[in-house]
Amino acid sequence: MILLFSCCKEKESTKEAVEILKTNDTVQVTKTAQSDIAISKEYANKRFREVTVQKLDDDTYRVEGQGQIFESSFSWIVEDGHYELAKGFEMTDAGAPEWGRFDFTLKVSKKNQNSTLTLILFEISAKDGSRQYELPIPLPY
After folding, report:
1. Residue 71, Ramachandran bin (φ over 0: left; ψ between -120 and 50: alpha; else beta)
2. Domain for residue 5, yes or no?
3. How far apart are CA 99 and CA 66, in angstroms?
4. Can you name the residues that pair with 131 across neighbouring β-strands?
5. What is the pLDDT of residue 5?
6. Which parts of the chain are beta strand (E)?
7. Each residue's pLDDT tens digit, 27-50
8. Fewer Cβ atoms within 10 Å of its own Cβ: the N or the C terminal residue of the chain?
9. Does residue 131 belong to any structural domain of this protein?
10. Do strands 16-23 and 26-33 pair parallel, antiparallel, or not at all (unpaired)?
């Protein structure tokens, strides 16, 4: 009976809590363990979902998620509030209306050590070239 109790107790300690924060069209999902240590944050909007960012080293980040993107191509930019520090484009493994997966790494250095970097994922309008469905994501320190 003690063994059964300890097994149940162990399962309880691995429970997660999920906090959902909605701001305009952006959704941020934070999953936390019972010990209040953040496990991961996911970001989403109408074109992107389950987007996570992992810091690999001082200047390198891994970005994963899904996108429902016309012709599978989307763009990204990293800014610090004053400057565009890096930019590029990526592809999902399926085009809209399907949700395609993406996984890429980016390297970016801060100009000012006190600044906060923000990654913005977006789709380019085929009509006028403007940014659509921007998803801002603060990069981990």
Report:
1. left
2. no
3. 6
4. 124
5. 40
6. 16-23, 26-33, 38-44, 48-57, 60-67, 73-79, 84-91, 100-107, 118-124, 131-138
7. 666 554 444 454 679 999 999 999
8. N
9. yes
10. antiparallel
Overall average pLDDT of the 99-118 stretch:
95
Burial code of 1-11, b = ≥16 C-beta within 10 A, e = fewer?
eeeeeeeeeee
User: What's the chain's Rg over C-alpha atoms?
Assistant: 18
Question: Helix (H, G, I), strand (E, B), or coil: what is residue 4?
Answer: helix
Per the structure, the complete domain to which residue 97 belongs is given by: 47-138
Task: Let me know if residue 6 belongs to a domain.
Answer: no
- Bridge partners of residue 32, in order along the sequence: 17, 38
Mean pLDDT of 46-64: 97
| Residue 85 structure tokens | 């520090």
User: Distance from first CA to last CA of the chain, Å, rounded?
Assistant: 46
Average the pLDDT over 67-71 and give the result. 94
- Give the pTM: 0.76
* Gap between the Cα atoms of 33 and 48, Å rounded: 25
For residue 96, is it within any domain? yes
Does the pLDDT of residue 54 top 60, yes or no? yes
